[in-house]
Design a protein that fits this description.
Largest sheet: 5 strands, mixed
Order of helices and strands: HHEEEEEEEEEEEEEEEEEEEEEEEE
CATH architecture of the largest domain: 5 Propeller
Number of domains: 2
Strand content: 35-45%
CATH topology of the largest domain: Tachylectin-2, Chain A
Radius of gyration: 19 Å
CATH superfamily of the largest domain: Glycosyl hydrolase domain, family 43
Structural class: mainly beta
Length: 365
């Protein structure tokens, strides 16, 4: 297994299928520029222009990541991902990326991070970041390889600009753990979601007893009540859960298969949808995620056998899926991928450029 791998590794029976990817010619881009420049989203046009030059992955620079999530402040994009103290990367164009240090230094790790797992080594997993009420809320996982005494923590900041005098990550402590996050549940891979009614929610979990949903206090970002009233999303399916809201449905995504094994990885992304944030989430056939039934969104292929642990980022009219892929051209290393999200005629998310752009109702600034 790769030395860089610092996450759990699970193997489940896969029904892998070839996954489509963006294929767009320079000639088509020129037509878009000359004929459709005004109605076509400029940010998407620039992104596809670069993608036309490299159909596999147009991103450049330091793009080795696990479990990425993306956000923008000012004219700079930020990706947070699994790593020592939570690793960060930055870009000004979503194409060229460079390493930008860590949220926590080796001498300034959260004071509580070894409380449940004494051998925790400072590798903090699968962050999620959300901006609201004038503050960035950064959730992250505290765990260790095959140790399920996991928990989720929270850090806050008023800016992501490291040159600002106001830049300072504040450790807000533990949010939820294996002690109150559900019997036998591996409490990792958080996602914060703020619904249209102002209620705040936290998704989390893994293959170890599945995915859960708990309500948060919007102002503090902590549990609304403890012990929380937990909603079961799945009983064994998936990790790296992420949910977004469209005009009609709430769409949920998770990863299944084997991660962290280079070219032997079989990670893939599955999806479901619901009418409310609490679910139940259903697959294309109307079967429930609570029964671990899902629809495939993105599988691997010969160039990227494992693709998974996604987040989403919205800018203008375009929502992008952000994920990592184990890549043959990089000797099986896990690389950052960013692709526009579409929606098909049946109301399901897709990566097919012939479909309409996905219209996201809930925005993550």
């Amino acid at each position: 297994m790769e030395a860089e791998c610092i996450k759990r590794c699970y193997t489940y029976d896969n029904t892998a299928s070839k996954a489509g990817r963006i294929t767009i010619s320079i000639e088509l881009v020129n037509i878009m520029i000359t004929k459709y420049i005004f109605p076509f989203p400029v940010s998407l046009l620039l992104f596809l222009t670069s993608a036309a030059q490299d159909n596999l992955n147009p991103l450049k620079g330091d793009i080795r990541v696990h479990d990425p999530v993306m956000i923008k402040e000012g004219n700079r994009y930020y990706v947070f991902h699994t790593g020592k103290g939570i690793s960060t990367k930055t870009s000004t164009d979503k194409i060229n990326w460079k390493r930008a240090g860590s949220v926590f230094s080796s001498t300034n790790l959260p004071a509580w991070h070894k409380s449940d797992i004494p051998n925790q080594d400072g590798n903090l997993w699968a962050p999620d970041i959300y901006y609201h009420d004038g503050k960035y809320f950064l959730y992250y996982s505290v765990s260790a390889w095959m140790n399920f005494n996991s928990s989720l923590g929270l850090a806050t900041n008023t800016t992501l600009d490291t040159t600002s005098p106001n830049y300072k990550w504040i450790d807000e402590g533990q949010v939820i753990s294996y002690k109150n996050g559900g019997e036998g549940v591996n409490v990792i891979d958080p996602q914060f979601f703020l619904d249209r009614d102002g209620r705040a929610w936290l998704f989390y979990g893994s293959y170890q007893k599945g995915l859960r949903l708990a309500e948060l206090d919007r102002k503090t970002g902590k549990l609304l009540k403890d012990p929380p009233s937990l909603i079961t999303i799945t009983t064994s399916l998936g990790e790296g859960v992420f949910m977004i809201r469209g005009p009609e449905y709430y769409y949920i995504f998770a990863s299944r298969g084997k991660c962290c094994s280079g070219m032997a990885s079989t990670y893939q992304i599955v999806m479901g949808r619901a009418k409310t944030v609490q679910g139940p989430y259903l697959n294309r056939e109307g079967q429930s995620w609570t029964d671990n039934k899902y629809s495939l969104f993105l599988a691997g292929d010969s160039t990227e056998p494992g693709r998974g642990h996604n987040g989403f980022f919205t800018e203008g009219d375009t929502t992008f899926i952000v994920y990592h892929a184990y890549t043959r051209a990089a000797n099986g290393a896990s690389l950052l991928n960013i692709k526009p999200l579409y929606i098909d005629k049946d109301g399901w998310p897709s990566l097919n450029t012939k479909d309409e752009l996905f219209r996201r109702e809930e925005l993550r600034h």
